[in-house]
Amino acid sequence: MRSATSEAWRAFQEVNAASTATLGYLVALFCGVAVYVLRKYVRPAARPPFPPGPKPLPLLGNLLDMPLTSICVKYAEWGKQYGDVVHVEVLGQHVIILNSYKAATELVHQRGTIYSSRPQVPMIHDSRLMDMQWTFVLKPYGPAWKRQRRLFTQHLNPTHTATFHDLQTESAYELVNSVLDDPESFEVHLRHAIGRVILGVAYGLRLQPTEDPYVTLAEKMTRLVGEGMEPKFLVNVLSFMKYIPEWMPGAGFQKLAADARKTTQELLDTPLEATKREIASGSTAPSFVRNALNEITDDSDPELLQDIKDVAGSMYAAGTDLTLSMIHQLFAVFAVFPNVQRRAQEELDRILGGPDFPSFRLPTISDRPNLPYIEALLKESIRWTPGTGFGTPRLSTEEDVYRGWRIPKGSIIISNSWGILRDENVYPDAYVFKPERFLPNETNPVQPDPLAAFGFGRRTCPGKHLAESSLFIEIACLLACFDFSPPKDEDGNEVDLNYVFQPGSGFVLRAPPFSVTIRPRSKIIERVVREAFNG
Ligand code: HEM
């Protein structure tokens, strides 16, 4: 019985082994045939190549190619060398640099669903670090960004911006009065004038003439954020470092982050509370916060109050430095390009009365349609110093193919506005400050408006109209009242101010310190400025 069973068992095992082997052969044969057929007849879908760019090294990628200074200039050079769409890879992160208006429009604008997010940088965004998720300027594309952006544009669109023309004009008159008093500190006066407009628009608060606490707070926050954006923080690569406590050696980034969190909280809370108190005491000054609070009802979304706070706080953070960088450089432009200054003053004099006429008056924003050369000068200033050289980076949220090139999901997209606005094919003599390029009667065809300075698509700058009317009235007032010339060195020679126009390393195109000689154009003008300022 036992041997019959074991024989049967052996027979079963033999049959089993034979059939297993047969099955193995069959599977192997099938796989071999399948591979042959697939190889022969079905070619694997080759992934499209990346756009051209400098050759990467193994592991490091293009880390060593990345510029640390004059970043936008290097990107523009790559644009000439490799084409208007450039690909680099840094430690596995793909970066796509767009150097033409066409490429930026076709990708960032026309494919807005894919290219409207922002990269999330640990130092800036992480709640243990600077925790800047609150501002929609830096939020990823999604419902929270949409809500806050809608709130901004609902209360600060081109129509509403006109409500603030008086504030912008008063601020420009205060600016020329301060320059008259103390021409050397023109940068301080500019910062105050811009801060006055933005904080006025956001909260309706009147600022103190000097050292206003809100401006000081807002400036501190802008400085901290600027510092946090510098590409020097190791925590952005080694994210576990965010757990290192502040007291440990080498944890300076934690101190910066803690300072930013505290300053942000103060900036969001203090002016909002002051505005609520002013409204309660009967103030009628229009402002974003006032208009938005008026719409709160009992059944309003509970997030709305927080959104109002965050959007108001975003205005100073987003607008001040970019507006300042533009108008600050203009002081050097006026001195370096005297022909531009003269032509602008001739136009202003025709409308306002010349500097020696007792009937001289200061400009207003309603003069704008009658001052086409100043309007062209405004456009040329935006082309010349587009606030930030390489725009505010975007993040692609889906794999994409453009002109046959692969753009992987998660790529950082940079629209190099400086390079786009210095493209000789679009703006001949791009390195000469020439407002007439925007005058229809003088350039045929007229050159395109410098829209690239304000970004592209769904996240394009919503403060553009406000910024443009502030810049217009400031430029008109400054040129109507003053002559600008290069300063003289110890030997009496004029200082060459062209170095001011070299883009630096920061995100904002901030000019290095420079001085310029500023003189009032006449005694009559001095009197008119004093009267305008003192009411
Ligand atoms: C000349 C001055 C200014 C320049 C050159 C400028 C430029 C820019 C640029 C390039 C962007 C990024 C757009 C993109 O991602 O494509 C931006 C975004 C933004 N700007 Fe401006 N801006 C200026 C003034 C202002 C002002 C005065 C305000 C507010 C009062 C403002 C509010 C904003 C906001 C809130 C965003 C973020 C939009 C978003 O992410 O959805 N900007 N700006």
From TrEMBL:
Any single Pfam family the record assigns to this protein: p450
GO MF entries: heme binding; iron ion binding; monooxygenase activity; oxidoreductase activity, acting on paired donors, with incorporation or reduction of molecular oxygen
Positions annotated to bind heme: 461
InterPro entries membership: Cyt_P450, Cyt_P450_CS, Cyt_P450_E_grp-I, Cyt_P450_sf, Cytochrome_P450_fung
Keyword annotations from UniProtKB, A to Z: Heme, Iron, Membrane, Metal-binding, Monooxygenase, Oxidoreductase, Transmembrane, Transmembrane helix
UniProt cofactor(s): heme
Transmembrane segments: 20-38
SUPFAM superfamilies referenced in this protein's UniProt entry, alphabetically: Cytochrome P450
Keyword Cytoplasm annotated: no
PROSITE patterns referenced in this protein's UniProt entry, alphabetically: CYTOCHROME_P450 (PS00086)
Domain of life: Eukaryota
Pathways involved: Secondary metabolite biosynthesis
UniProt record similarity statement: Belongs to the cytochrome P450 family.
Protein name according to UniProt: Cytochrome P450
Source species of the chain: Sphaerobolus stellatus (strain SS14)
